[in-house]
Amino acid sequence: MRLTGAKVFDVQNGFVSRDVCIEGELLADHSSDGKSVDLSGYYLIPGLTDVHFHGAKGHDFSDADPEGLQVMADYELSRGVTQICPAGMTLLEEQLIKVCKNAAQHRKNSKSGALLCGVNLEGPFLSRAKKGAQNGDWLHEPDVAMLRRLEEASEGLVKLVSVAPEEPGALEFIKEVADEVTVSIAHTTADYDTAMAAYAAGARQATHLFNAMPPFTHRAPGVVGAAFDTPECMAELICDGVHIHASVVRAVFQLFGTKRVILISDTMRAAGMPDGDYTLGGQPVQVKGKYATLEDGTLAGSVTDLMNCMKTAVSFGIPLEDAVRAAAVNPAKAIGIYSRVGSIENGKLANLAVLDENLELKAVFLKGELVHGTV
Q1: Degrees, nearest 5: CA angle 187-190-195
Q2: Which residue has the higher pLDDT, 150 or 300?
Q3: N or C: the chain end with fewer CB closer than 10 Å?
Q4: What is the Cα gyration radius of the chain?
Q5: What distance in Å separates the CA atoms of residue 125 and residue 163, rounded to the nearest whole number?
Q6: What is the distance between the alpha carbons of residues 202 and 171, in angstroms, rounded to a whole number?
Q7: At what angle are helices 192-201 and 170-177 packed, to 10 degrees?
Q8: What is the DSSP string of 251-283?
């Protein structure tokens, strides 16, 4: 199939006018089937990768429910997210083992939906003082043996693990596992020096920057300053219009540069669902509009999918090519799947999204097949 006329996202040059060919499952320099589709007036971008979301359509990754995970994968694909790395919560190890095993089985058996490319362990190695919507009863000191048991249960799918570096044994933990998984600083009271020590030990990411960490101030730059001062560090950003002010979103893109920002959704089970009462990590959550909150008013994740987070970033003044990079290229690099997905290049999977001039999602391709919308 040859796709013609679209404004195509190019990693090096932004949006360019060129044809894109699909041969079987892959992007190629020619197509042998003779089909041609005119996409004049549309944008063609890589399918997005969400490396941090908990749930959607009434289900949560932490439920360890096969049917629920399939519903989530199908929903994400319908929203142009072609690769997912769902996140667990702070849970007992017994439940986290079930979560990881469920992910491994889904990876092997699923025939539809977004491709599950990893597991994100947001908990339980976090700070009680900055637990946010995590369940404090199940927090656990950083534990290498526990992480490796979870890695084994997931059959190698664990790609990200969050750690509060001020916790006992955290720096030793980071040094031990940094070559196995991407370590991200999260839910922490760490000051600048402690965060810098964590990055020196091998941490390479900051989980939902600004949220559940000390503020970035002129005398105490904290985790944000340490992440900025570590060139190898990528920073997650929840761009739902609730968690981060538009001015701060613009500032982060300016400070960190377009190659270091990862847009995430951090959605919980109410994404794609009506307002009402839900749960997150075993705790009651009330959802109204874009807000999901615990009983004490603490934000409990998001209800805005990644495609709409990308669109929100553009409405805040982020150039479309930068927003696409942050939602497609950078997250794929962060979990080590960029050689197969994340850009429109020959030899990669033909996982694509078609947007109209208003950035509304019109069609989704997965492995070269049109799976949502029309073209």
Answers
A1: 105
A2: 150
A3: C
A4: 20
A5: 5
A6: 9
A7: 30
A8: HHHHHH-TTSEEEE--B-TTTTS-SEEEEETTE
Q: Under DSSP, is residue 56 helix (H, G, I), strand (E, B) or coil?
A: strand
Edge-to-edge strand ranges of the sheet holding 87-88 = 87-88, 119-121, 158-163, 182-185, 205-206, 234-238, 261-264
pLDDT, mean of residues 141-145: 97
- Closest Cα partner for 189 from 262, 268, 126, 123? 126
Torsion of CA 149, 171, 225, 303, to 10 degrees: 20
- Per-residue model confidence as pLDDT tens digits over 266-310: 999 999 999 999 988 778 999 999 999 998 888 888 999 999 999
Regarding pTM above 0.85, the answer is yes
Please list the alpha-helical segments (H only) found in 257-353: 306-315, 320-324, 330-334
Lowest mean pLDDT among 104-113, 162-171, 291-300: 291-300
pLDDT bracket for residue 91 (50, 70, 90): very high
Backbone phi and psi for residue 98, each to the nearest 5 degrees, phi listed first: -65, -40
For 254, the token pair is 């300016």
Rounded CA-CA distance 315/309 in Å is: 10
Question: Average per-residue pLDDT in the chain?
Answer: 96
- In angstroms, rounded to a whole number, what is the distance separating the alpha carbons of residues 13 and 255? 21
Alpha-carbon span 237 to 255, nearest angstrom: 13
DSSP letter, residue 349: B
**Burial of 154 by CB count in 10 Å (0-12 exposed, 13-18 middle, 19+ buried)?**
buried
Q: Which residue has the tokens 């694909």?
A: 77
Q: Active-site residue numbers?
A: 266
Q: What tens digit of pLDDT does each residue of 211-241 get? A: 999 999 999 999 999 999 999 999 999 999 9
Cis peptide before 124 (omega within 30 of 0): yes
Q: Burial level of 180, CB count in 10 A (0-12/13-18/19+)?
A: middle
Strands 87-88 and 276-280, bridge-based pairing: unpaired
User: From the CB of residue 295, how many other CB atoms can be counted at a distance below 10 Å?
Assistant: 10
Helix (H) or strand (E) holding 177: helix 170-177
pLDDT at 11: 97
User: Which pair of tokens denotes residue 9?
Assistant: 């996202």
